[in-house]
């Protein structure tokens, strides 16, 4: 699943929180800030785990103000099963 999260989501610990939430759900992938102020993530896991992470992403951590979460199913070619969930640098 590819996620684009907009709102006040940078500078509030969103990436680290998303990493913890994904790891707790045994989801592999990555998260990063985008230059335009959004957060982007690629997540690979069971449908149940991904839906649960999506529900969390709509709220985010304390201090975040999520306006929109766009989610798109994708082939997870960039994610190796068992690779964990990483924080990537801003492109």
What features would you describe in this structure?
The chain is an alpha+beta fold. The protein is globular.
Overall 3D form? globular
The helix/strand order is EHEEHEE
State the end-to-end CA separation: 19 Å
The counted number of beta strands is 5
Share in helix = 10-25%
Strand order of the largest sheet: 4-1-3-2-5
Give the secondary structure arrangement, pairings included:
Blueprint: E1 2-8, H1 14-24, E2 28-33, E3 39-44, H2 47-57, E4 65-72, E5 85-87
Parallel strand pairs: 2-5
Antiparallel strand pairs: 1-3, 1-4, 2-3
From the structure above, extract its key features:
alpha+beta, 2 helices, 91 residues, 5 strands, Alpha-Beta Plaits, single chain, five-stranded mixed beta sheet, globular
Characterize this entry briefly:
By secondary structure, the protein is an alpha+beta fold. It has helices at 14-24, 47-57, and strands at residues 2-8, 28-33, 39-44, 65-72, 85-87.
């Amino acid at each position: 699943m590819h996620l684009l999260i907009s709102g006040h989501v940078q500078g509030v610990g969103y990436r680290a929180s998303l990493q913890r939430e994904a790891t707790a759900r045994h989801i592999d992938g990555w998260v990063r800030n985008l230059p335009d102020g959004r957060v982007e993530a690629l997540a690979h896991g069971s449908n149940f785990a991904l839906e649960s992470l999506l529900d969390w992403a709509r709220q985010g951590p304390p201090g975040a103000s999520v306006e929109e979460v766009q989610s798109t199913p994708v082939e997870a070619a960039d994610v190796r099963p068992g690779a964990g969930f990483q924080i990537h640098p801003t492109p």
